[in-house]
Design goal:
elongated, two-stranded antiparallel ribbon, single chain, about 40% helix, 4 strands, mainly alpha, 3 helices
Length: about 150
């Protein structure tokens, strides 16, 4: 039987990785720089080209306001293209998705839809008693909270 080489051995050490910083802010997912650049260029070129074709096609046929749709397509593709190209080169890029805990940033749509999100329960670090409300001291042992 062949002995495994040192290069083929697995590293069994475990490194814990957290997505939260020291203040408890949880990380966000950002679109990569290459996909942002690709989207930006395709929006600028493709959207503008489609808008020009739309304007030329509808100029001779159909109602006059149909050409306005082409101008809207051009303007919106330029704005979206600039956003994506900025996101490709900016030091602080915009987030594609934010991962936040419900207590940090509640979802505004749940409030509109009338859905109640249960808040995370907190416990006293001294005695383990469940804390309800915004108490500054534990109702059980009197220890200062948070």
């Amino acid at each position: 039987m062949k002995e495994p080489s040192k290069e083929g051995q697995k590293n069994d050490s475990v490194q814990k990785v957290t997505m939260a910083d020291k203040q408890g802010n949880i990380a966000s997912i950002k679109t990569g720089r290459a996909p942002s650049l690709g989207r930006g260029l395709s929006e600028l070129v493709g959207g503008t080209l489609f808008g020009v074709v739309w304007i030329n096609t509808t100029a001779d046929s159909g109602p006059e306001y149909w050409s306005l749709i082409g101008y809207f397509i051009i303007v919106s593709s330029i704005i979206t293209g600039i956003y994506h190209i900025y996101n490709a080169f900016a030091q602080n890029r915009f987030s594609a998705q934010d991962i936040v805990s419900p207590g940090k940033e509640p979802d505004p749509f749940n409030k509109i839809l009338g859905r109640d999100i249960p808040q995370a329960q907190s416990y006293c670090a001294s005695c383990g008693e469940e804390i309800k409300g915004d108490n500054k001291f534990c109702p059980s042992c009197g220890a200062k909270l948070g």
